[in-house]
Design brief:
Layout: E1 8-9, H1 10-17, H2 21-29, E2 37-38, E3 45-47, H3 52-63, H4 68-76, H5 81-111, E4 123-127, E5 130-139, H6 144-161, E6 171-174, E7 183-191, E8 202-206, E9 209-216, H7 218-223, H8 227-240, E10 243-244, E11 249-252, E12 260-267, H9 270-274
Antiparallel strand pairs: 1-3, 2-3, 4-9, 5-7, 5-8, 6-7, 6-11, 9-12, 10-12, 11-12
Helix pairs in contact: 4-5
């Protein structure tokens, strides 16, 4: 063991870094900040003076409220990678704060029993019956676009290899509502009617249906924060007595504005059908 007379006790290191002994023990257990030496007989931890800068960096990262897994990723990264990660985590923190602010405004409106901020107009359209190949995957909302693009590309390669012709742009079926935890999602590839059922590819029929559609702003589409748009569509159904069918679908629109379109099939109320 190293000469502990030249090392700092855990108390001294805690004072130098403003990290509590309890936190230092946790960081040791998580392999984020290991002691320079541990006394085999007493179990006392000792730290080198060269570790003070790392300890202070960890303290600042925790002040940013980064989870331990993200802290570990930053402190173990090399070169410019650490700074890149730090900026990515800071950007996600800003996005999370923006979501919290929007949620606060919506919660306040709900408490006051008033309508939340207006969203773009909801339009109606007819969806033709379509055959789709589906690629299931899991995603949390902040990575929804990236995961969808990756899974859709994978599904397109599989269908092309099986000789299936694409009949439209891929879209995303939201089996579970987007959240901060992994939810079930499907990448859907519209196909020309296949002659058979290729092995290893899941094919499903979407029947013709009337859909309500809503364009989602770029900020919400980029991070999958779609709760306001989903609420608006469901409320639109409810006010008219319509019944939502299946799961909503999300299409990422082309162009530099980064918007997306949310569509949801529905069954019209009897009174609405009688007016047609």
């Amino acid at each position: 063991m190293r000469d502990v007379s030249r090392l700092l006790s855990i108390g001294e290191f805690a004072a130098a870094t403003q990290l509590s002994p309890k936190a230092l023990r946790l960081y040791d257990e998580q392999h984020i900040l290991r002691p320079a030496a541990v006394d085999a007989a007493s179990g006392y931890r000792y730290y080198s003076r060269e570790q003070i800068a790392l300890g202070r960096l960890i303290r600042v990262l925790r002040d940013m409220e980064l989870p331990l897994a993200d802290v570990a990723e930053v402190v173990t990264a090399t070169g410019a990678r650490a700074e890149t990660l730090l900026h990515q985590f800071a950007l996600e923190s800003e996005r999370r704060f923006a979501r919290q602010q929007r949620a606060l405004q919506t919660a306040t409106a709900l408490l006051r029993q008033s309508a939340p901020a207006e969203l773009p107009a909801i339009t109606e359209r007819e969806r033709a019956a379509v055959t789709i190949a589906v690629q299931p995957f899991l995603a949390e909302r902040r990575f929804l676009r990236e995961r969808f693009q990756s899974e859709a590309a994978k599904a397109q390669r599989s269908t092309a290899a099986a000789g299936l012709a694409s009949a439209g742009e891929p879209f995303c079926i939201l089996i579970d509502p987007p959240s901060d935890e992994d939810g079930r999602v499907e990448a859907a590839i519209p196909l020309a009617a296949p002659a058979g059922m290729p092995h290893g590819i899941t094919i499903r029929q979407l029947p013709a249906a009337t859909c309500a559609a809503l364009v989602v702003p770029a900020a919400d589409a980029g991070i999958g924060d779609l709760t306001g748009a989903l609420d608006a569509l469901f409320d639109w159904f409810d006010r008219r007595g319509h019944r939502a069918l299946d799961a909503p679908a999300l299409s990422f629109l082309g162009g530099a504005d980064g918007r997306a379109e949310l569509t949801w099939a529905y069954e019209a109320a009897a009174s609405a059908l009688n007016r047609r």
